[in-house]
Amino acid sequence: MNYKLISSIALSLLLARWKQTLVAAVGVMFSITMFIALLGFMNGLNDLLDGLILNRTAHVRLYSEVKVNPNQPIDRANGFTSGHNFVRSIKPTNSRQEIYNSQAVLHAIRQDERVLGVAPKVSAPLFFNTGTIDITGVVNGIDAEAESRLFHFADYVTEGRPDHIASIPNSIILGKALADKLMAGIGDLIYVTTPGGERFPLKVVGYFQSGIQEFDKTQSYASLSTTQKLFGRGKSYITDIQVKLNDLEWAPAVAKEYQRLFQVDAEDIQTANSQFETGSFVRSLISYAVGITLLIVSGFGIYNILNMMIYEKMDSIAILKATGFSGKDVNRIFILIALSIGVSGGLAGLLFGLLASVGIDHIPFNTAALPTITTYPVNYDLIYYGIGLGFSLVTTYLAGLFPASKASHIDPVIIIRGK
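-> structure tokens emitted (419 positions)
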């Protein structure tokens, strides 16, 4: 089999109908361009939306939840054992939100080789005083260095520096929406009141902006020591332990293990944010569906063009077979034509897809809710380009397979006799 001769014949047939060939290649190019641009943009958007939540969420969160005492007196009465008892006389007075023996728990977790880092946290409700009005909010006592290293806290501090809450006594970083309600500027003193009625002055050293407006209306951040002092607690008072693992997939198993080992409540990131994973999957699925549909449509275009080429070139095919070319050789010629259209259109589509992605990436996107984002997000993962090129080859191959099979079965005697 002479591959050079077959390639030369395929090229001649392509050039003989170069306008139709160009249209087919442009169809493939357009499909791949849209496939790359759409997937890059949608997955960039997924990364942005997931990052707003998932990057700020611990892989495993340990906490102590207030629970109703399960051993109620009415349950022990013989006359009520078979019924549904709704009387609750023993309240959870001995239950606390503090994690017991927190320092030992922190030490044990840090020794675990599966753990990338640990960030202790104190979270408690607070009243922010503005004139005669008290605004309900939440103060989060954090280790600023650990939060920035593990959960990108510094990326969301739009003014000021995260480490100021550790270096400046009695300081606080306010959510930007909360600061606007309080009319509090950097360096201003604000007053807060604890649920116990204690009133304290705190210095505003920064603004925090997560991109979720309702979250920023209530949240604030201070150092662990400042928060513990606000509520009259010692250094061992911790309400949450945030754990980041080396592998996200370990989170459910590790959460169950820690819950059993330390006798605390534990929540893994998959459980806490399942709705975000579902949303990302649906958006990606839509992108792939649209892109593949475009490729299939362009495949039908190639199929039609090759069919027309066969009808118009029956004389040439008959002569080829009469001069010694087998049906397999004719099949290879038309498959080569289809793949040539797919390769040329696919490579051009990858190039224009990259250019389209770069163009989207440079479109200004300014919103007060996301101050760190200045342009539309785009993901340049090479796997999308590989998938696009692969689909273009498969689609064009299948589009050329049936016309090529038809051409290979043409009887040259019937064609020549008819002429």
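The beta strands are 60-63, 115-130, 133-142, 157-160, 171-175, 189-193, 199-208, 219-223, 240-245, 265-268.
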